[in-house]
């Protein structure tokens, strides 16, 4: 399982299983509220959110379905969820739902630890920028000048342009290795150096460079592992200690740890990960030695504190870690709507920063608005958690009046099934993943290996949408002879051209 942000192009086919295993009702265990909020009004607001989960797409002419958190946790085989909502620059409320493992008795609270997965990266970015602020690193210097234990291998791509910290944080360095699978309980674990080198027992290829630095955006957990090594070589201490000193303690993220594997003392506080079919991950979770890329254990309120500090610092109202100048560097898009460690979308009062995460058995999401003091963090202990947190997020957005994360209204067009037939075949994504499009009973479906299929609904003969997170749209493209050569994928402001490999009849 890779550590990926939720906006990546194969998000729309992430897994969900309509299972119905026995599970305790979603239970509010811990609640934190602001002093100024009327308790009764807040309780009513929370109930509306809990009972108002919404789908990605609303079909024209149909009543909008609304579900409860408890119902959807059962549908998605997700035993536990933790939610924190930011309003007016404060954590207005935080609650835990369900249990820390399938059929378990320990309830999730707002202090339950979850793997943040790739939401580790924004924290790591802030750590690196703190060293920039202290004059120990330079955003635009060749990182090989300061790397000691290992250096980025030079090749034809780095001959004229060198890799910088800015590029590593923004995924524009050309450094390879998309994400990391982690190490199952009992399996030999590689060190960070072995992972960078790709030597046993590392289960990922060596980190290298496959593009001229600064010329393209390509998500890279490998790049954040380079950052981790850079920080350790610079301060000559473990990354976990650096992160605690520079970010976690100043922000009072008291339950957060870059501890891999998780110390036995903390295991009782952790939610176990669960697979798509509802089974618990062997041993409870994988270990991720790539701390900066995927190694944070945290709680929803702790991540909300991080998001609030970014909001406050960007407005010049706080400098617990970074000054306003460097915080706004984090929030400045480099390529493809990516700042330094964060996705940046929207403008003006609608500008928001976010990051999603995906480790084996866990899905997480953090989003906050720069200027309005609003946001949310949702942590789940299931491979199906992305579908669930997306529905919860839409309910929060509806209750708090956010302009974003509302269901898309769509009309399904009538299209001759023979048109569908021309689209059948395999399509290759830039990461190498292959999408297979098939037809069954006159309806068209797309499927990636290891994921359930998702239906493509027609808006016209060439344009289709999927009823999944991100509101993705697919526009098929034909060549001059009328044959299908691929499709354009539009998802959350990104546009990608996907090539067709073959036809399957």
What is the CATH architecture term of the largest domain?
Answer: 3-Layer(aba) Sandwich
Main sheet summary = 8 strands, antiparallel, barrel
Give me the CATH superfamily of the largest domain: DD-peptidase/beta-lactamase superfamily
- Model regions low in confidence, pLDDT < 50 over at least 5 residues: 1-33
User: Approximately how much helix is present in the residues?
Assistant: 10-25%
Mean of residue pLDDT values: 91
Q: Which fold does the CATH topology of the largest domain refer to?
A: Beta-lactamase
- Taken in chain order, the helices and strands follow as HEHEEEHHHHHHEHHEEEEHEHEEEEEEEE
Query: What is the beta-strand fraction?
Result: 15-25%
Which structural category fits the helices and strands? alpha+beta
Distance between the termini: 31 Å
Tell me the Rg in angstroms. Answer: 22 Å
Write down the CATH class of the largest domain. Answer: Alpha Beta
Q: What would you call the shape?
A: globular
Trace the largest sheet across and list its strands. 11-12-13-14-15-16-17-18
Number of helical stretches of at least 4 residues? 12
Care to count the β-strands?
Answer: 18
What count of structural domains? 2
Question: If you had to describe this structure to a student in words, what would you say it looks like?
Answer:
- The protein starts with 38 loop residues before the first helix and ends with a strand.
- With 505 residues, it is of the alpha+beta class.
- The model is unreliable at 1-33 (pLDDT under 50).
- The chain has 12 helices and 18 strands.
- The chain is globular.
